[in-house]
Amino acid sequence: MLIAIVGENCVGKSTLASEIAKVFPSKIYSGKDFLRLDKNPQNAQQKFKELLISSVNGENVIYLITEREGLEFLPNGAKIIVLTAELTQIKERFKARMRGVLPLPVEKMLENKHGIFDNEPCLLKIQSGKYSLEEVINAIK
Description:
Blueprint: E1 2-6, H1 13-23, E2 27-30, H2 41-55, E3 61-65, E4 79-84, H3 87-97, H4 104-113, E5 124-127, H5 133-140
């Protein structure tokens, strides 16, 4: 089974993936982790696409997507979950990740990216911290 958790930075994708993986043991990939599959980036990309296709009806894989380009890797049959959060919450989490300082360019980047997945077709759209794991698991099943 392929589960894609899609969302902006600091919305809780990794946390949700860890919880889902407790119920559906899975390999978790995020961002450009696929580059570890081959020294040649093009070969790595192709291997990753093949891995995702085979996981739709095979081994459980969770793919965390923060950039729109990641959506291009998803084959038909992927179970897509869009995770959202309020911009203020994203900024606070990012600030904590950066040891209490949120530089203006980073703040502007977060503002520009906010809402990029709002209209993405998905199995389930949930707000960070306002869902039950049971709800998510039932939607996946």
